[in-house]
């Protein structure tokens, strides 16, 4: 492209949307030119998020398809089921779309409707959408017109899990104990995420029925994976740590584990291998995913840690967009 691609964000005033605005505003190759917000239409973005004063001078607009049709790239940071209504009206041959919602993450209509309990209204685009797990679907993302940004938990689990499965390192079922900061629930005030209910609390929820569980299985490279996924909320604003438990294949060794995970990290500027497990502060407000492994007599725990609003949402979405536009996947993700 001879001129900078024009990009827009629908749902710009949500937590992930605001992170997208921050990244795109400093992006060296993409011009952010359109912001849409149902709740704050007509208001300057910097009035809603004062930290953007003198940095972002765009006003939030209502969702309209005429300005969208003039964009090269559109990010959808909207609630689940909203994206399919928007995407079905977009000419994807002219405007590329990265969807941060769940509408195009699952590979079949039946699986989506079972997980989300609603009818999928755009099955044709669901069939052609590419799952945007950059480190494993790099080549499929490049020519894509519509990319489904993975869920935050699914990203944390799948980044190491796919490599472990392909290397035949896992014997038997996989158990995942995952913990997330409160921003994973979005910006809207909820009783479950209020201070009085979350302070000094760690609480499991949606055990074995969380919507990221079928997403993880569907994209794991093993559709018959025996997985138990247990998510928790913790009293932190952002971050996810996933502990992945399994038995090591008896024909493999601890050295094979380390070699596989180190190779994954060496193939990406975003994945960092750690000799010891780290906490969420090590990745907060960064686009990184930190992985580590502990093995003892054939019992294995792989730790995967990331920022749910960045690698679990906005920075991964920009990685996808970069590939779709022909740029290096990490363009714009690091200051300077």
What is the H/E string? Answer: EHEHHEHEHHEHEHEHEHEEHEEEH
Low-confidence stretches: none
Biggest sheet, spatial arrangement of strands: 8-9-7-10-13-12-11
| Largest sheet data | 7 strands, mixed
- Give the strand tally: 13
The helicity comes to 25-40%
Q: Pairing-aware structural class of the strands and helices?
A: alpha/beta
Shape field = globular
Strand content: 15-25%
Could you tell me the mean pLDDT? 94
Q: What is the C-alpha radius of gyration, as a whole number of Å? A: 19 Å
Count of individual helical segments: 12
Span of the ends, CA to CA: 23 Å
Task: Lay out the secondary structure.
Layout: E1 6-10, H1 15-25, E2 31-36, H2 45-48, H3 65-69, E3 73-76, H4 83-87, E4 96-99, H5 109-116, H6 123-128, E5 130-131, H7 134-141, E6 146-148, H8 152-166, E7 170-180, H9 195-198, E8 203-204, H10 212-218, E9 227-233, E10 240-248, H11 254-266, E11 271-273, E12 289-296, E13 299-306, H12 314-325
Parallel strand pairs: 1-2, 1-3, 3-4, 4-6, 5-6, 7-9, 11-12
Antiparallel strand pairs: 7-10, 8-9, 10-13, 12-13
Helix pairs in contact: 1-12, 8-10
């Amino acid at each position: 492209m001879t001129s900078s691609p024009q990009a827009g964000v629908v749902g710009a005033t949500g937590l992930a949307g605001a992170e997208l605005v921050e990244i795109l505003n400093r992006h060296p190759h993409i011009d952010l030119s359109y912001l849409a917000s149902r709740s704050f239409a007509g208001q300057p973005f910097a009035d809603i998020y004062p930290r953007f004063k003198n940095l972002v001078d765009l006003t939030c607009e209502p969702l309209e398809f005429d300005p969208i049709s003039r964009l090269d790239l559109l990010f959808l940071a909207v609630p689940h089921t909203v994206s399919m209504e928007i995407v079905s009206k977009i000419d994807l041959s002219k405007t590329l779309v990265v969807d941060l919602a769940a509408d195009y993450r699952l590979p079949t209509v039946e699986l989506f409707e079972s997980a989300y309990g609603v009818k999928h209204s755009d099955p044709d685009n669901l069939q052609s959408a590419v799952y945007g797990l950059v480190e494993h679907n790099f080549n499929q993302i490049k020519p894509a017109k519509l990319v489904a940004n993975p869920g935050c938990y699914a990203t944390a689990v799948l980044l190491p899990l796919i490599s472990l499965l392909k290397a035949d390192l896992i014997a038997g079922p996989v158990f995942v104990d995952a913990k997330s900061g409160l921003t994973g629930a979005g910006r809207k005030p909820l009783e479950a995420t209020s201070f009085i209910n979350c302070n000094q609390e760690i609480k499991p929820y949606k055990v074995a029925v969380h919507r990221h569980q079928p997403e993880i299985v569907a994209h794991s490279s093993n559709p018959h994976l025996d997985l138990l996924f247990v998510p928790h909320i913790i009293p932190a604003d952002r971050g996810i740590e996933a502990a992945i438990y399994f038995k090591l294949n008896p024909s493999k060794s601890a050295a094979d584990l380390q070699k596989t995970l180190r190779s994954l990290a060496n193939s990406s500027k975003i994945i960092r291998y750690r000799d010891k497990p780290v906490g969420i502060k090590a990745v907060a407000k960064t686009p990184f995913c930190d992985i580590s492994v502990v093995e003892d007599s054939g019992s294995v725990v792989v730790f995967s840690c990331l920022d749910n609003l960045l690698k679990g949402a906005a920075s991964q979405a920009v990685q996808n967009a970069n590939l779709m536009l022909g740029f290096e996947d990490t363009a714009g993700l690091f200051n300077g």
